[in-house]
Design a protein that fits this description.
This protein is an alpha+beta fold. It contains 20 helices and 20 strands. Helices cover 43% and strands 17% of the residues. The strands form four sheets. Strands 13, 14, 15, 16, 17, 18, 19 and 20 form an eight-stranded mixed β-sheet that branches. Strands 10-9-8-11-12 form a five-stranded mixed β-sheet. Strands 1-4-2-3 form a four-stranded antiparallel β-sheet. The termini are far apart.
Length: 637
């Protein structure tokens, strides 16, 4: 891969920069420097913002096509008109160009490209293979642990339901290896018949291996054979009057039947595939993805990519596939409702990601076509609901603008809140909302670091959070040309928080960002909130006002996110030990100290001679430990 252009290794302007030309003249000047290799090009405006990222099998030919003023869609015509410079990266193959194009789109988020907005990973079920008694658990992210993976599932809730029933059916352990090794008696799961207690040798290795094998067979779709075998065993146990064993087998059969009932659609001719259906209406689109695994429907998920009226179905689906599978392992077969622009290159990319061949198909008849039609039908319904919700949201945002006296409906609202317990583990949180609702990918949390803050000083905490947020934003985008700048800032609090926020923004030279504080009022009841504005003005809404409900939802979401961040930090601080910070203290010495004294606090209070009496602690190490816990103490007079 190499970089090439007409003027410099980084950009191509086509004329003297003082003249700042734009449009066809810039593009013509770049053509002469290009060859016929495949690659990726970027089109930038006068501010240096990337307007569009594209790929080409032949860079020279593709870029030269932009010099012809006719035959372009309104979108491309607008891009050409505002292009002030171009950047190029040549690649060895068209497949590499397609992959690089989607990587740049995800990173740069150009205005005129199709962009997948929700790109989270999906949960899987993992049966580990790193222990004599394998663990079954939910797994997200890269498949780096050894074991058998089953999924993906459309949501964490569907995984949790399936795991719950699988534990009833197969009694596999869900505890971590550390908990497994430290058990001295069976846990509650064994008492309620959801674990076979291998930690206490209540089941043999061979019997547990059979349970693991049965679980894998079920998750691989071999359900009828397994259930028939369990039914035979149950009848035999009943005939032998082993009623307790028969009851256990009955419960396993019922649990398996429940899992099958949850998987509502079970196609007979499709064992493992993703069904992807697209429906678009004007400048909006919805893509439904159905996950078929082991001849079972393991759920679906709706996506609403950012597109324009200019985007065609082929371009939308190609961008979606490249971005969607960038952090997921594709199945062996992908069934689409519409063709993609470069099917061979896309299959090559997905096959590399999987490590085996992946086929893309557009079924026209039979069960596969019915599955695709079902995905499109669900996409149509989901888009209708989404558009209805968006229209309602836009009306509420306009009502919020009217209430606060804004120039227009805010497109990005940032809500700030703090959380702590008596000044400990202080955390600040920011949530973001707009016309499309909550934008969870834009949420941020801040661990309060101010050493001069009085514990529990909410005003000081809010000031630190806002300083870190906007100071960083000023450094990244001093021209304020990006989309990360808020149109409205809401802080949880009254006059004190608003005054602190106003003074902080003024110090940073930011004076045109609208700001308001949300206080619960004297009786602290929902519906009686007061809104504090800069200058001391206080406003209120009627308890049944829809705009008030919108603000309450955003405030409550900020509160929920802040509490979650605080609890996470508190859990880490509770589990941490000061012994970990002492040089030379490893796992063995730490265990010896805790076994001797009972806690890290007791170790910190121990005398030098007591430390020396611990097995495995030398005199020199005892002196180091003793000095470590007294390094901040006042010297003895």
């Amino acid at each position: 891969m190499s970089s090439t252009d007409g003027r410099s290794p980084a950009d191509c302007t086509g004329a003297e920069k003082r003249a700042k030309p734009v449009g066809v003249a810039v593009i013509k000047n770049c053509v002469a420097a290009l060859d016929n290799s495949p690659g990726v090009y970027r089109m930038l405006n006068l501010k240096g913002e990337v307007l569009y990222v594209g790929k080409a099998k032949n860079l020279r030919s593709r870029v030269r096509s932009y010099t012809n003023p006719a035959g372009h869609s309104p979108r491309i015509a607008k891009v050409i008109e505002t292009t002030a410079s171009m950047m190029f990266l040549s690649t060895e193959t068209e497949t590499e160009a397609l992959l690089l194009e989607q990587n740049l789109i995800k990173q740069l988020k150009p205005k005129y490209n199709v962009l997948l907005r929700d790109d989270k990973s999906f949960p899987n079920i993992l049966i580990s293979r790193e222990h004599a008694f394998p663990q079954i658990r939910k797994h997200r992210g890269r498949r780096k642990d050894k074991g058998s993976y089953f999924g993906p599932f459309a949501s964490a809730a569907s995984v949790n339901r399936t795991l719950n029933q699988l534990q009833k059916a197969f009694l596999l352990r869900s505890c971590s290896d550390a908990v497994f090794e430290s058990r001295s008696r069976p846990c509650l799961l064994y008492q309620i018949k959801r674990c076979s207690a291998p930690c206490m040798n209540a089941v043999s290795t061979e019997t547990y291996a059979d349970l693991v094998s049965d679980a894998e067979s079920f998750l691989n779709g071999k359900t009828s054979r397994l259930q028939a075998a369990l039914a035979t065993q149950m009848e035999a146990a009943s005939a032998a009057m082993e009623f307790e064993r028969a009851a256990v087998l009955r419960d396993r059969i019922q649990a398996l039947s429940h899992v099958q009932a949850v998987q509502a659609v079970n196609p007979k001719t499709v064992k493992e595939a993703d069904i992807i259906g697209l429906f678009r209406e004007g400048g909006n689109a919805c893509i439904q993805v159905f996950f078929i695994r082991a001849n079972q429907n393991w759920g679906n998920h709706a996506y609403y990519p950012r597109i324009g009226a200019w985007a065609g179905e082929a371009e939308i689906l190609e961008a979606f596939l490249a971005q969607f599978y960038s952090n997921k392992t594709p199945p062996p077969k992908i069934l689409l409702s519409h063709p993609v622009a470069s099917p061979d290159s896309m299959q090559d990319i997905l096959s590399r990601s999987r490590g085996r061949r992946v086929r893309i198909a557009l079924p026209k008849r039979g069960e596969k076509a019915e599955l695709v039609e079902s995905a499109v039908r669900n996409a149509r319904k989901s888009l209708a609901i989404k558009l209805s919700e968006t229209q309602t949201q836009v009306k509420l945002l306009q009502g919020l603008a009217d209430f606060l006296g804004l120039d227009g409906a805010p497109q990005r609202i940032e809500v700030y809140d703090n959380s702590h317990i008596q000044g400990t583990d202080q955390v600040g949180a920011m949530i973001v909302s707009g016309p499309d609702g909550l934008q969870k990918s834009a949420y941020r949390k801040f661990n309060i670091r101010g050493s001069t803050l009085t514990p529990g000083d909410d005003v000081g905490m809010m000031r630190e959070v806002l300083h870190r947020r906007f100071n960083n934003l000023m450094k990244r985008d001093p021209a304020r040309s990006g989309v990360e700048w808020p149109d409205l800032v809401l802080v949880d609090g009254g006059a004190g928080q608003v005054a602190a926020a106003c003074s902080l923004l003024a110090e940073l030279g930011i004076e045109d960002v609208p700001l308001a504080g949300i206080a619960k009022g004297r009786q602290r009841n929902a519906g009686l909130e007061q809104f504090h504005l800069p200058g001391g003005e206080i406003r209120a809404l009627q308890p049944n006002e829809p705009v008030l409900y919108l603000i309450q939802r955003m405030r409550d979401e900020a509160h929920r996110f802040a509490i979650g961040a605080h609890r996470s930090r508190r859990a880490k601080s509770i589990s941490s030990s000061p012994l970990n910070e002492i040089p030379g203290i490893g796992a063995a010495r730490k265990a010896a100290l805790l076994a001797h004294f009972g806690s890290a606090v007791a170790v910190s209070r121990a005398g030098l001679q007591d430390l020396k009496s611990v097995n495995g602690i030398s005199d020199a190490m005892a002196e180091n430990i003793h000095a470590y816990f007294r390094q901040d103490a006042d010297p003895t007079p």
